[in-house]
Amino acid sequence: MTSLPARAARHCHAALNPLHSALYFSPDLTSAFARHDVDARGAYFAARAAPLGAVGAGVVTATFYNFQYAHVARHIPDLWDSVSPEQALETRLSAADATLRRLLGEEAIASKELAEAAELALRAAEAGTRAARPLYAANAGLPVPREPHLALWHAATQLREHRGDGHLAALVTAGLGPVDALVSHTASSRGMAEDWVRASRGWNQEEWQAGQERLRARGLLDGADELTPAGTELRKTLEEETDRLDLAPYEGLGAAGVARLTELAGALTATAVAAGAFPAGIFGTR
């Protein structure tokens, strides 16, 4: 039985996660990997998969879940000939440093509030569970950076992957494959824009429409490609199950710590978003 207020862990994750995910929309990441002759899409795969080692396309597809296998295989494993996993880890941390300094500013980077947020986030991340969580476990095995803003990014990354690994278990249990999960999330108006999702995940229009048809057959999507009441309830249940599977880090931190981390991370995220951390037009529209 958790001692946390309802959805406190989810709210904390929502406040902190943008500080992690901003890296994957950052020109700093693209330019850093370009020096290794890795293109923008390859940079995403290299940076996120590097903690797993020089794995193949099958492992990346399995752990990332919602990418089309052939799309992944255009980059993995060939990119490891250009940049080793060890080099990729160094490169992503260098890009995270540049990104956070650009978005937050040097005053925030040096602030006691950021250092406090890093300490709290690391405590939460250390309380995660590794079993059946490959991306979290791989990141949890990496050394903690010494600089507070990079330690914060490192902890946010672990917490993102911890929640993500649990979410994939919930999706599998619900019978939502990669495309079906993306279609239902986009239809909820909480996901990213359809065109952006399809392009970035490698699904064509026919594959997307097939996912829509599967959801209609289950009574989860209507003829206007909107979630039915049953579809809305399924998405709600998925998030609640993800919350349940993601409690350990936040229970380890405690209610007061979670509330404080939410406050601190929320302020930092607001600064990052205001500085243009994410491109316009990718969220909440189809």
From TrEMBL:
Q: What's the protein called, per UniProt?
A: SalK
Q: Superkingdom of this entry's organism? A: Bacteria
Which InterPro entries does the record cross-reference, listed alphabetically? Answer: HTH_67
